[in-house]
Design a protein that fits this description.
With 155 residues, this protein is an alpha+beta fold. The chain has a single domain, classed as Alpha-D-Glucose-1,6-Bisphosphate, Chain A, domain 4 (2-Layer Sandwich), CATH 3.30.530.20. Helices cover 30% and strands 41% of the residues. Strands 1, 2, 3, 4, 5, 6, 7 and 8 form an 8-stranded antiparallel sheet that branches. Strand 5 and strand 6 form a beta hairpin. The longest helix has 38 residues. It is globular. The protein starts with a strand and ends with a helix. 21% of the residues are buried.
Amino acid sequence: MTYSSCPTDIVSAPVNVVWSLLTDPAGWEKVFDVRIVEIRPRGPAAVAQTVYAESGPSFLHLKVEIQFFKIDSAHYALDLNVRLPFQLMVYESLSCVPLSVEQTLVNYRCDFSLPPGWRGVFMRIALRRKFNTGPADSLRRLKRAAEERYALTRA
């Protein structure tokens, strides 16, 4: 059972500012709702790099494992596989399209794979709203961080 969410937004910052945020997993705590535990290997985003993180309320320690499996720097695109608790898998594809010197279109596609059987049905019912609001919230956070970073360079 799958569910897709595809938010898109225009960010008022150059594509290199947005791309630098996406390809710096060590800095994701400042952008996304995630706490980084470990990055293997350390450094900027690379194919086969795995980010171990936690999400949700800090007392729950919900483990998240993110693996980069495609990075196309020339076209500002990257693909990730995300493993969440309760056998929930997410294929994420992000692309950045420069619209002008100071604007970037960000496309964010999330394909959620739910576990089979009653667990998948339960998760689809219980998390239906979160499947749309979660990716949209992540895109909003990225937009805010990129625009704030760009504003600092112009000040």
